[in-house]
Design a protein that fits this description.
Layout (H helix, E strand, L loop, with lengths): L1 H21 L3 H7 L11 H15 L3 E5 L5 E5 L9 E4 L3 E6 L8 E7 L3 E2 L3 H8 L11 E11 L4 E10 L2 E17 L4 E13 L15 E12 L12
Antiparallel strand pairs: 1-4, 1-11, 2-3, 2-11, 3-6, 4-5, 5-7, 7-8, 8-9, 9-10, 10-11
Amino acid sequence: MRTTRLLLPLAAAIALAACAQQDGAPADASATAPAASAPAQPSGEALAETQDTAEAIAGVSGTYVLDPNHTDVVAQWSHFGFSNPVAHFGQVDGRIVYDADNVSASSVEVTLPLAGLNSHVGKFDEHLRSADFFDAAKFPNATFKSTSVESAGTNKLKVTGDLTIKDVTKPVVLDVTVNKFGEQPMVKRAAAGFDAVAQIKRSDFGVGAYAPNVSDEVELRITTEAVVAEDAAAPAATAE
């Protein structure tokens, strides 16, 4: 009985404390609020990613020389509807003039030597370079020269220019994605990276053999990395 008398007041005290905690003051509620209610703070990795995006949008003005080792132009078409082969155009030479303050003042000039054409099938490469298609002995290069550059949204550009193949020049529109601006860690100079896509009709340029069974429409996919020219004044540091 004595033990029971001692436990009853203790149980009552615990019950009262529990009620007080449930009906507690607002100050206690803020102290016990779950951590998830606080605004989430971006991780270091997320911050770095945000900074990279900002850099890509801002860019660094300057003249950039294409790196042929990290530039590829891929052409793809339909072969009788059965497959979609590709051919690569390497050994690319060119320059990009980028004006971060006035994008419309930017420009692109590119030369595609047909010596760099590679479908990974030797016999087919010979056929593509023959008079049936590119006639590379007579017309060794294809070229692209921009006529306008426009902003097309976040990290996007629209580049219109003249594509010349076999001395035939036609306008082509490139939908460009800005991958990154920043210092290239190997050469320690400012660099820029872009991807682009375009659609052309090969018959427009005198390389339309076997169309339309082999599709006249060709998709071009371009990826390029360029570093600021050594003789250019662009700083190596990325713009804020």
